[in-house]
Amino acid sequence: KAIQFSGCASGEACCIVLRGASQHALDEAERSLHDALAVLYQTISETRVVYGGGCTEMEMGVHVLELASKTEGKEALAIEAFAKALMAMPGILSENGGFDAAELVGNLRAMHQKGHADAGLDLSKGVVASMSDLRICESYRSKLSQLCAATEAAEQVVRVDNIIRNAPRQRNA
Hints:
It comes from Perkinsus olseni. There is one protein chain. The protein has 173 residues and is mostly helical. It folds into two domains: 14-45; 51-155, GROEL, domain 1, CATH 1.10.560. 60% of the residues lie in helices and 8% in strands. It has six helices and four strands. It has helices at 23-45, 55-69, 74-96, 101-113, 131-134, 140-164, and strands at 49-51, 119-122, 127-130, 137-139. It has a two-stranded antiparallel sheet with strand order 1-4. Strands 2-3 form a two-stranded antiparallel sheet. Strand 2 and strand 3 form a beta hairpin. Helix 2 packs antiparallel against helix 3, helix 2 (55-69) crosses helix 4 (101-113) and helix 3 (74-96) crosses helix 4. The chain is extended and about 85 Å long. The termini are far apart. 17% of the residues are buried.
């Protein structure tokens, strides 16, 4: 669904009036409108886009997993965990869309491993499809912000885990 604004001359300020059946519904509509306007602002100020439908996360995950297979030691485990976290995003999308995540994500991963870098989830039909053909895109800046925030949060968890870990107990001989 799209909202079309009319009656506002280009470049002029306008008011948006929201109405709802309850205060809760009105608050949710206000949050949704705020989020939509923030994405619109980001898209206007940064015109680059990336493919949506979990395509970007799966493609990054496949490449990060490839890097993990070429890395040795504990770093390989950390890199592999990061790849799996990236690849989990399409599963969350499919579950939120009411579809079988295991089947869709398996198909999506297979498509990316075969070199179909634009493959993503078409949640209107519950299939894997070309995001390029469907013209399903997301804001580059928004995606970058999401990835940076998630990576920073994971890094903080790892740091806390290292701080909490106790030294081994001394054993009496």
